[in-house]
Amino acid sequence: MRHIIAAIATLLAGWATIYMIGLDKEVNKLDNISKLIKSTAMEDKKIKVQTHTKSATQTKKTETNNQQDDEVANKIKALKEKAGNLAAFKTSTLYKKSCASCHGNVGEGIIGSKLIGKDKEYLLTALKDFKSGKRKNYVMYGLLGNLEDKQLEELASEIATFKAKLDKASK
Ligand code: HEC
Fold it and tell me: Is the overall model pTM greater than 0.85, yes or no?
């Protein structure tokens, strides 16, 4: 009986040793894992820093945009107060008829994007790209299909002057 107990004890001890070695390995594994986690954490930090910088620029950009929006909105308001209505801000018949409903009388943007403050080259490229379908937008594509390239150029030139015009008109 004693022999049997001794044998079982030895077996248990052996198993325990093996188990402990195993645990050691596990601990090593854990160590490695935590090292790995730490290194990714650094990567994470790097990524975080990058995203942070990015969002900081983005915030700045949005702020500038908001400031510009506010500026345009204030000037439109001033124009309304001064002239009684926006009729003082004259635009071509083509713009009034075909574009103002979505982009606003002053290009301030309603359903369509804000156009005021954008330069001629940017506007013309956008219009050409909409017309050719390179830049996909069904509304603009459908609208510009009937217009000649010369008209696109005229529109781009005209819209590019909106900002200066508004500045002048709201003084
Ligand atoms: C039915 C509404 C609607 C009308 C009318 C309309 N647009 Fe647009 N326009 C849009 C929408 C919506 C967008 C945004 C499309 C996009 O960004 O993909 C847009 C985008 C644009 C852009 C690009 C702006 C940018 O920031 O990249 C320009 C330029 C433009 N329109 C000019 C015009 C001109 C010029 C006319 C008149 C011939 C006109 N639009 C008429 C709805 C309209």
Answer: no
